[in-house]
Amino acid sequence: MATLDRWEPFRGSYDSQLNRLFSDFFGRTSQEQNLTPWVPAVDILENEHELVVKADLPDIKPEELDIRVENNILTIRGERKFEKVARSAGAGEKAEDKNYLRVERSYGSFARSFSLANTVNTEAIQADYKDGVLTLSIPKREEAKPKQIKVKVGGTAAAAAAR
Predict the structure, then answer these.
(1) What is the 3-class SS of 34-51, one letter each residue?
(2) Which H/E stretch holds residue 13?
(3) Which carries the bigger pLDDT value, residue 91 or residue 143?
(4) Mind listing the pLDDT tens digit for each residue in 74-106?
């Protein structure tokens, strides 16, 4: 037999219900937007020769990025600035800021840090920035790269084991 739950639409404070209603209707509030820090998405992958870090950094100029390695900690810092778009003024008009109807993208300073293993060569890191994606290639040290070991069949090891 199914259980019936009593529906109470106004359970909880009226303020929280009203805030939730407006938030659902209008999206995130400006207060909520200001509380959410911007943290760019990062993918990290590894192959036998290197680690690759890819970070989504749209609207950031490459010269405004700060990429460092200190004590085997890779840190990527930067800031995405909110730029007001001014419409062009005609003869006798003043330039005005556009009135944004919705701002959903996050802005502000960010810093992402990642621990690097001792198996990478931090002196040979290469950075590439294309289409808003920062790609860091971090090569592995030669001694850390996998090595294949050949197995001899019927050689001296097999003869010694037969004795």
Answers:
(1) HHCCCCCCEEEEECCCEE
(2) none
(3) 143
(4) 999 999 988 766 555 555 544 456 678 888 888
Q: Write phi, then psi, for 47 (nearest 5 degrees).
A: -125, -175
All structural domains of the chain, each given as residue ranges with its CATH number in brackets, are 26-83+96-156 (2.60.40.790)
Give exposure, 11-46, as e/b (b: 16+ Cβ within 10 Å). Answer: eeeeeeeeeeeeeeeeeeeeeeeeeeeeebeeeeee
CA distance 15 to 2: 33
Q: What is the mean pLDDT of residues 45-59?
A: 94
| 35: phi then psi, degrees, rounded to nearest 5 | -85, -15
Please give the structure tokens belonging to residue 84: 């007001």
Q: Tell me the whole-structure pTM to 2 decimals.
A: 0.62
